[in-house]
């Protein structure tokens, strides 16, 4: 775990402890890495309910309620898919917030439209979902680390926006 992700996780934990909100994860290309970083902070069981590692499209559809039409029209690696993964995770895991990741971590699997390193991440609650697209290919491990860090950054940004609106 990098210093950056450890710091982000601690700040996120403090927000969720203070506000009493719950969190879930829906991960594809990061394969549970976001969940591992979040649960590395002692006391995370007070707010983190669980996650789904949804590598296959069938899992995205059946467990996270991503629409088949979305996957066919936009693909698993798309902004639309991660938004639906966030909403599906909140619904099926009964949480206030969720994060999602889907992408091509590499080294293979890329296409001309979605080369290796293309990763969509999202963080959301019932009112808002923030998304970001990563496009740099630094190798599989670094791609996963970058997606994990960006997901945590988005979640913290969303939490800070919520706090400022209260």
TrEMBL record:
<dbReference type="InterPro" id="IPR008136">
    <property type="entry name" value="CinA_C"/>
</dbReference>
<feature type="domain" description="CinA C-terminal">
    <location>
        <begin position="7"/>
        <end position="158"/>
    </location>
</feature>
<dbReference type="Pfam" id="PF02464">
    <property type="entry name" value="CinA"/>
</dbReference>
<dbReference type="InterPro" id="IPR036653">
    <property type="entry name" value="CinA-like_C"/>
</dbReference>
<protein>
    <submittedName>
        <fullName>CinA family protein</fullName>
    </submittedName>
</protein>
